[in-house]
Amino acid sequence: MVDNVENRWREFAAGAKTALPVVTTILPFGILFGALAISNGVSVGETVLLSALIFAGASQMVGLELFGQNVAPWLIVLSIFAVNFRHVLYSAAIGRKITHWGPAKMAFGLFFLTDPQFAEAEKRHAAGIPVTFVWYCGMALSLYVTFVLLTWAGVVFGLLISNPQSLGLDFLVPIYFLALVMAFRTRSLWFPVVAASSIASILAYETIGSPWHVSLGAIAGVVVAVIAPQKQASNDHG
């Protein structure tokens, strides 16, 4: 019994340790969201509650931009869906690796399914290490608590910084996501999938605009990943 508890704590600690590098990337999101929310007339309690209930920095930013404008509610919902559509793909991919959790644990865990959470779980599975619920919670809860606290910090201190972009903190986010993408570079079809996703995303951004480029870029990458093996297989048979 003692050994079992100790193993669980080790797994939880390993997940929390995995979250440490990610904290630097959510730092600008949390603080900037807190500062922007207050400047847009959202109360302190409402701002912290938004981060606690939604836990999705990008869609929270989109919501802030649209809530104060004369925009139809359905368009706000659709815009946030466009930003978060990638999570549908994430859950479909990771769901096959956590079926041993059971429905209740899976539903709880998927609430915390962020970009880094998905990437680290994929890397763990690729290394032949089980994606345990305890490890997953160790990372997820560390990120969640940190993000909510950073939102509160942004509310309290964010407005003291007249130009947060001048600090360059927002550049940490693309650097981290680039590192996540490069971590999968040894997988088959990595380059064509990344190239298709990048091109589609840029074209969508220039023609349709944000936030649709996020979903369209993801869809383009999925289409290439689905079609390419079929072409390769048909060539092998031919």
Strand content: under 5%
Mean of residue pLDDT values: 79
Order of helices and strands: HHHHHHHHHHH
* Count of discrete alpha- or pi-helical segments spanning 4 or more residues: 11
Biggest beta-sheet profile:
none
| CA-CA gap between termini | 58 Å
Structural class from helices and strands? Answer: mainly alpha
Helix residue percentage: over 70%
Overall, the morphology is globular
Radius of gyration, whole Å: 20 Å
**Residue ranges: pLDDT <50 for 5 or more in a row?**
231-238
Number of distinct beta strands: 0
Task: Give short descriptive properties of this protein.
mainly alpha; disordered C terminus; 238 residues; 11 helices
Short structural summary:
With 238 residues, the protein is mainly α. It contains 11 helices and no strands. It is 77% helix and 0% strand.
Please provide a written account of the structure.
The structure is a single chain. The protein has 238 residues and is an all-alpha fold. It has 11 helices and no strands. The longest helix is centred in the N-terminal third of the chain and has 38 residues, at 2-39. The chain is globular, with a radius of gyration of 20 Å. The termini are far apart.
